[in-house]
Every structure is written in structure tokens, then in C-alpha cells.
Amino acid sequence: MTEPAARLLDVYDSLLRTDAEMQGAVHVGRVGPLYLAIFPGGQGFITSPRFSGGEPTPLSELVAPALEYFTAHSGITKVEFKTRAHDYAPGLHETLLSHGFAAGEPESVMLGRLENLVSHRPAPQGVQVRRISTTSELEQMCVMSAEAFGQPSAPGTAQELAARMDLADGVELWAAWAGGLMVGAGRIEPVAGTEVVGFWGGGVLPGYRGRGIYRALTNARARSAMATGHSFAHSDSTEYSRPILERQGLAKVTTTTPYLWKRS
Question: Most buried residue, 14, 105, 167, 191, by CB count within 10 Å?
Fold first, then answer.
């Protein structure tokens, strides 16, 4: 089933911004329409509802007070300001840079019906896909995922995910093994009070890409999400995963770019 692009963008703006992004936060503050979240590990996060141009204060003028909110908390070591390409935000890029934020890689916001992600093809031969069930597997997943994305393994990530799992809010961690080696992983996070489930952290080790492992991980997560009554899938995707999700029926509704500030 294909949804009109305008309908999907409305689903994104109305269900997947602000309140939906606060799951897992230990504290949430406000500066005007901005939501300011503090997550475990000293991470700050700034997001907003859609800006269409009729707001009393431009988005760019809210950067300074939002950053000041976080700099007043000595435990905050980094802050992400999440931007969207379809928002009306003249001057925002320049203002963020002038306040010490650095632009990250843009990602495609993918959205569509979960049923489109269900594959009737079996997992690749010799590959097993299942939910992670032990602490050691969780720690292994964090190390493997960092390698898959070409990033250093961040200390505390496993503990943060374990804390999320303890909340029993529907988060599921899935992994793929080939010959006993964990080669891919991803998670799903239901958006409370909606029919939407987020697909996050999907990655496969470079040497195992192109074999259908990412598709198998997506299929397993989609089936699980549908079994719990969800209808839509959402993902912020890299240029590696975007084409795969497009082939499986999700649509790119906008682009999101994270801007990161780090305490010096």
C-alpha cells in the first residue's frame, strides 16, 4: 500500500516530532516552541515542531537561549540540534555555526507502511536473525555497530540501551549472525500512543554487505512490529540504507541534519 507523500509528511510532523522524541529523556525543558531534552550520559537534544514561517520568533533566534539552557548544566558534554529541510528556517545554518555547532551528515527521513518491509525471501544461507537476549550480546552489538558505522565505540552505550530495555516500553534489539559472528544489528522503538515504530541503528559490517542481511534484519523487525499492532515504519537513513528501504516501499519525506555542539 502506497501513501500519498503529503499524508506521510503530515504523519511525520504530527506524530514523530517533539513529544515523540522525548522517550528515554531524564529531563525535558522548553524554550518557546523548542523541546530541550537531557538524555543519560550527559547528552542534550534540541528539537521543534514544524516551522512554516508564521511563528512569532524565527527558529534561528532561539539557538542562543537553547544552548544557554544546556551550558548552565555542567554535566552536559554535547548537544544535538536537529533540523529538517522542509522547515522554514532562514539563517539557521549560519546561526548554529556561529554558536559552535558543527553540521553532521544529512539523513533521509523514511516513512511508510510496515507491510511494505515484510519480505517473503528467507534469510541468506548461514545467517541467523533473532532478538538479543543477554547482556553480553548487547555489549557485542554496541561494539559491532560502531565498527559498521566506522565510529569508535562510545563508552556507556551498552548501559544506556540496557536502561531503555528495563523500561519495558517496547524497544527491541535484533542482530544477525553469520558463522557464529555477529555481523549486523538494529532496533525498533515504538512511538508511544501512535501506530508508528522507529527503525534505528540498522547496520551491517562492511565485509558482509550486499548479501541480503540488512533486508533480513528489516524483515524480522517489521514482522515483530506488526505483531504488536503498529502500521507505519519510520527511519532516519544513511545513503547506504535509504535505497534498500525505498526498494521495500518506504518513501523519503524530507531530510534531517544534526548539528552537534561539544563542551570544550
Answer: 191
